Amino acid sequence: MNFLECMKLRYTTKKYDSGVKLDTEKIQEIEKILHLSPSSLNSQPWKFTIVSDQKIKEALAPFSFHNKEKVEDCSHLIVFSMLDNIELFEKQMAEYLPEYAVTYYNIHIKPLGIAYTKNWMDQQVHIALGVLLSACATMNIDTTPMGGIEPEKYDEILETSNDYKTLFAVALGKRSGEDRNQPSITPKKRLPIEKVISKK
Ligand SMILES: Cc1cc2nc3c(=O)[nH]c(=O)nc-3n(C[C@H](O)[C@H](O)[C@H](O)COP(=O)(O)O)c2cc1C
């Protein structure tokens, strides 16, 4: 199936078949795909926590608003965190990145302030979200991106180091046949293509 067809068929899953668990091989492939996500300057200000333990999913579920059932019933939950310590981030850059990247950061990002820099780092983590959703679309894995969670509670339960903070999570698994959001029942909705694609 080509990528366009995969994108037509992927959708935000609202109900999972709790009896279906993803193969270890697929999860290992996902780990490698996340690891290869692109980021500005190759800065990689992220951590991905892959939760398969049912007890941990059940502990996180009450802090997931309308996503509670998805967190309980999905096969795996991936929690996306951002490196939230600028000092450590700069150390990581200095250790792993070429000098031109560090120089660009020092001239064009850092002087704009901590809030700007952290927002820029947050954007990089969202790129990995797009990569994951697209990859899963080609791997016959159903997904739910979830901004509707309580990040501080997630940090507490996952015992995240203070240097990182949860931004959002993605549920992965197999849809329930009863999920009314699947495109065969509820067609995908988007703005008119002419409104969002401009040609010059
Ligand atoms: C960053 C982000 C956060 C989202 N948060 C939630 C969420 O908490 N719960 C949910 O059911 N869907 C969530 N969505 C799914 C969007 O509502 C969905 O992608 C959009 O309506 C398009 O529908 P589709 O994914 O089925 O094509 C989120 C999507 C993104 C990209």
UniProtKB/TrEMBL annotation:
Top-level taxon of origin: Bacteria
Family assignment from sequence similarity: Belongs to the nitroreductase family.
GO molecular function, one term: oxidoreductase activity
One matching Pfam family: Nitroreductase
Name of the protein in question: NAD(P)H-dependent oxidoreductase
Stretches of the chain forming a coiled coil according to its record: none
Domain Nitroreductase stretches: 10-174
UniProt KW keywords: NADP, Oxidoreductase
